[in-house]
Design brief:
It is a single chain. α2 runs antiparallel to α7 and α5 packs antiparallel against α6. The longest helix has 29 residues. This protein starts with 17 loop residues before the first helix and ends with a helix. It has about 170 residues and is an all-alpha fold. Helix content is about 70%, strand content about 0%. The chain has one domain.
Length: about 170
């Protein structure tokens, strides 16, 4: 753990694996906001499978993800990302299931990681909420999702370290 690290509690009620979440949170402190946004979108793209059928191909979803990806390379502003978030909120309000609404909420927080880096962790918590909704009382599935999230994050961190070594 990094010095001064204090695990936060999820902002939502979920059955979780707090040990792995704390490991994830500690690792997030080593990455930039753009890198966290990339990780959050990896999680959100996995959550897209749970979006309601009539919304899966809605352009607003793709445009919001694109807005975040373009923000990561400084091609759009945070204001433009916020506009995409407003459209996602409307899409979420029109969801016909709690699972679909949670999936869109996961995407929203991932896209919102362009606005604040802690939103990436919130997106990961919503992915756990999706596991809770789709596989109730399944701690094995929750732990597997958290391990997958950690592996994705650690992979990004490792790629960054390798890139820095090659630059030196």
């Amino acid at each position: 753990m990094t010095e001064g690290f204090r695990p936060s509690h999820p902002k939502i009620s979920i059955d979780d694996d707090p040990g792995i979440r704390a490991d994830i949170e500690a690792l997030t402190g080593e990455l930039s906001q753009q890198q966290l946004a990339k990780w959050a979108l990896i999680i959100a793209k996995k959550a897209l499978q749970y979006v309601d059928d009539q919304q899966k191909y809605d352009r607003k979803l793709r445009l919001a993800i694109d807005a975040n990806e373009l923000w990561q390379v400084n091609l759009v502003t945070v204001y433009q990302v916020r506009q995409a978030l407003t459209r996602l909120a409307a899409l979420q309000a029109n969801s016909t299931s709690s699972i679909g609404a949670t999936a869109i909420e996961c995407v929203r927080w991932a896209v919102a990681s362009a606005d604040a880096d802690e939103n990436a962790l919130r997106a990961s918590d919503l992915a756990i909420k999706l596991v809770n909704l789709t596989q109730p009382n399944n701690q094995v599935a929750v732990s597997a999702e958290r391990r997958w999230q950690y592996a994705q994050l650690a992979g990004l961190a490792e790629n960054i370290q390798q890139g820095l070594r090659h630059m030196l």
